[in-house]
Amino acid sequence: MNRKHLVLPLAGILTFALFHEARASTVLPDTSLQILVGANDQGADTGIVTGQGFATLSRSNTNSSGGQATAVGIVSFQIPDASNPSNNFIKATATASGPATAGATVGGSYSFQVSGPGDYRGEVPVRIQAQGVVSQPGGTAFITNDALLTIPGLAVSASNDAFQGHLLGYACLDGPNSGGCGAAWHLANQPSFVVDRTLDIPANTALSLRFDLVISAHGSAGTSDDQFGMIDPIMFIDPSFDNTGLFTLDFSPDMASTPLPATLPMFMGGAGLIGLLTRRRKRKSQPG
Fold it and tell me: What is the chain's pLDDT, residue by residue, as a tens digit (288 residues)?
C-alpha cells in the first residue's frame, strides 16, 4: 500500500485515541430519594433510598372518629431525555375524609454532568424542560402545598432569600389560614410552573437536580379533601451547539438500569395529573 494512503487513517486513529484518553472520566453519585407519609397523626412512615432510581411509600389510617386518611409518595428517576419523557418524576397525593389529616413529603436528587475532553474549560448549552403543579389546599388548617425544582450550586435565577439563585421552577399554594409560600420561601402563590430554558452548564463538572414536594390534606367532619402535586423534568444537550458530538450528558449510574415496577399504574391517580402532564410533555419535548 502507498504510504500516502496510510497518512489520513493513521491520523484519524491517533486523534480518536488522544480524544478518548483525554476525555474526563467521573463516577457520579447515585440518586438520593426520601419519602415521608403520614395519616391522622398516627405516626409517619419514612423511606430513604440511595442507589436505586425508583421508590414508593404509602400509608392509610382510620382514626377513632371514623376519619380516613391516605398518603402516597412516588419517586421515579430515569434518564431524563426527550425519548423518555414520562418516566422521570416525583409525585405525591394525600386524601382525607374528615375528620382526618394526611400528608406526603417527597424529595430527592440525581447527579448530572456534561462530559467531554478533559482539558475543556468552557460551558455547554443544556436545554431543560420541566413542569410542576400543586393543588389548592382546602380545609381550615395552616397548610401550604409546594413543588420546588433547584440546581444547587448553579445560579439559574434572580437571587432571593430562600434559594440564593438556585431555583429553577416552583409551584406554591397556601391554604385559607396559611402564609407559607411567602413566609417560608419568599414566593408568590402560583399553582404550576413550566420551564423551557437553555442553561450554560460548565463542562466536566458534577451538578445535581433537586426535587422537593410537600402535599397535605385536611378533611373536617363530613367533608373530604384530595390533594396532589408533581414535578417532571427532562434535559438534553442543545442540538444547535456546534460541538455537540464531543460531549455526552451523563447521569447518576443507577438511573439507566432501574426498570419501572409493574405495580406503578395503581399509584397513578391524582385527578388525571399524570396523563395531563405526559400529554403536555410529549408536545413540548421535541428539540428545536
Answer: 444 443 434 344 333 344 444 555 578 988 888 888 888 766 666 666 655 678 888 888 888 888 889 999 988 888 876 666 667 888 999 998 878 888 899 988 999 999 999 888 899 999 999 999 999 987 666 789 999 999 998 888 766 657 878 899 999 999 877 778 888 788 899 999 999 999 999 999 999 999 999 999 988 888 888 999 999 999 999 999 998 899 999 999 888 655 555 545 444 444 344 444 444 444 444 444
* Residue reference for cell 400543586: 134
Global pTM reads 0.80
